[in-house]
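Weekly structure sync - notes
Attendees: PM, LS, DV (DV joined late)
Agenda: review two folding runs queued last week.

Item 1: First target. Sequence and structure tokens pasted below for the record.
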Amino acid sequence: MLVLMENLIVMDHPLIQHKLSILRDKNTTVRDFRALSTEITMLMAFEAMRGLPLEDAEVETPLQVAKVKRLAGKKLAIVPILRAGLIMVDGILNLVPNARVGHIGLYRDHDTLKPVEYYKKLPNDIAERDVFVLDPMLATGGSAIAALDFLKADGIKNMKLLCIIGAPEGVAAVQKAHPDVSILLAGLDDKLNEIGYILPGLGDAGDRIYGTK
């Protein structure tokens, strides 16, 4: 992994970068886009989980008792930001099948331009867990900041924001609003265009995932 600055990590693993190159291609099919999004998330999560706490344990092998390490405490929860964040869930559950899953849905009020929470369902013990907030695209940062605001209001303290692609503008906005939250990306792109799309980006992730464009 490549640490560019405090609380910003860009995953430079060769497999991640190779799969990301195919994900960006405008000719990649909906089916392949979904599969690649899941695979990239799984590879990113593998790296992102290096810091999870471990505890000592013992298991009985066919030959003798072995001293082993296991994840400690309440372990992990994941919270996708609807709708595009859903594609990242299975990539993490493939690694940690017992992780708890919450959901948060946001929309922007046309008059106030402020994010409004329209759906939230979280595990009861989520405040005791390490939490990964999932969204494929970190563009302006508005949705991510709002999601982190709402989750912190529920007492969640240990959070990381996991995104496939990010723009410098979105990274800066999240770092300003939530300097305690680490941001993990597969790719940090050049900039946003005049309508808020990431350049060079990969288009609208939600539309490409669900074939709605």
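Item 2: Second target, run right after the first with the same settings.
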Amino acid sequence: MNFLTYALLILLGIGSGGMTSLIGASGVMVVIPALSLGMGFTMKEAIGTSLMIDVIGSLAVSYSYFKNGNLDLKRGVWIALGSVAGAQLGALFATAIPETGLGSGFAVFMVLFGVIMIIRGAKPPKTASKTDKTLKLKHDWQRNLISVAIGFALGINCGLMGAGGGINFLLVLLFVLKLPLHKAIGTSTLIMAITALSGSIGHGLRGNINLVVGLIVGLGTIIGGLLGARFANRISEKLLNKVIGCIFIVLGIVMTVIILKG
């Protein structure tokens, strides 16, 4: 790799880290296409390396949110527990799926992700009391059990598609556990780091990670993640909602173009 390649990989990481810090989501939608189309990685290598990058960036972002008091360990740990097991199962499935099938699966994932982006800004969450009544969650152990089950399902998606599952975790934290937006983003990134670590170990054991590229892009995610988290923690929740909404719209358009060209 030449100097230009190194620079582009760091810039890729900065963009991915910034995205993670602002919307609590994995940079998978930019990292995987860049590695698979731009550098000729197989889909499995792109997924495995993307998971490693997610771990690095998410840890940096979650630490920044933790310093600002915007991380809920008590609620997030149960989802993380389920997601770890699910990520291993997803990594196993990814190895067994043919390369073409895996690419199609990732395209479907991006479409669904774009739909979630649109819905997120259109439907505000219900009150916590009404949600609890609807789900009939009267005890902490019930919420914890459901959180583990949700984490397991999202973890499978993580290992299979190479995404830390951040946006899915974010939606659960907002709509089910009713966390404020700042705290939901911080907690989501921590869960994503744990889930992505489990998934990356699974892929690493199967030789699906490019360590050098992962570390270079990971360095960029630390830079972008810390800068983005600093900005997000300083602005109001109302403004942060607008920023997130704009990012969702742009990402949805970009992903649609990628799918149509494919």
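Discussion on item 2: Confidence is low (pLDDT under 50) at residues 121-125, 127-132.
Action: LS to circulate a short write-up before next sync.
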